Phosphatidylglycerophosphatase A
Amino acid sequence: MADIKPTFSWLKKRPLCLLGFGFGSGLAPVAPGTFGTLPALPMAFVLHLIGVDGWWLAALCALLFVWGIRICNHTERALGIQDYGGIVWDEIVAMLLILAFVPFYWGWWLAAFVLFRLLDALKPWPIKWFDARVHGGFGIMLDDLIAALFALLILNIAAWLI
């Protein structure tokens, strides 16, 4: 299959790809991962307001992770490009997981966002190791899950020190 330059019109015809591209946020011409992480913030806010937070949100993230393997596999195949930067479902799920365990306060959410984006972009060990060796939908989802777990560890250490 030939490589495809996705557009919002292309995504609207492919619902799984629309999800893979974070409802279109992954189409951002620069920093698609950063823009693709943004939908997690209002999603987590609404979920928090209706009582889905903490371990309930983490359980939802587990389901979204499993579903994300299929979404990312499908989107990657539809594009004909491995681990395309605009596939951001993984960023959304990872950010939701982080927000499940940080205080419901804008400062913590901002710190979580910045730290996660930094870890996801820089890919320190072992994130980079997994990113290079595990491919397909599972690989796309896995490196962001590991970045989220690292972010949670760092944020919990920061909370303990404060």
Remarks:
- The CA atoms of residues 98 and 152 lie 6 Å apart.
